[in-house]
Design goal:
Number of domains: 1
Order of helices and strands: EEEEEEH
Radius of gyration: 11 Å
């Protein structure tokens, strides 16, 4: 997957079409999700990342992941690379 195909404000969806997040940027081979999609509680308002290796395809302004949304979010990482 080429990171040039991915840009800010594109929607990230699971293989099942369910919303996972919105792209803020692509940094070091990972999609940085917008903080507004970072969840609740301890995860609210900080950065989460998804590895570009999870991207199955880019469909217009949507990035489809290779896993369903419920599974994909378990692969989200903190900025440090540690699991969420």
């Amino acid at each position: 997957m080429s990171s040039e195909q991915i840009g800010p404000d594109m929607e990230v969806i699971g293989a099942d079409g369910v919303h996972v997040g919105t792209v803020d940027a692509v940094i070091d081979g990972r999609i940085k999700l917008a903080k507004r999609d970072s969840g609740e509680g301890a995860h609210k308002n900080h950065d989460h990342f998804i590895d570009l290796g999870m991207v199955a395809e880019v469909e217009g302004q949507k990035i489809r992941l290779s896993a369903n949304a419920a599974v994909a979010v378990t692969f989200e990482e903190e900025q440090s690379g540690r699991p969420v």
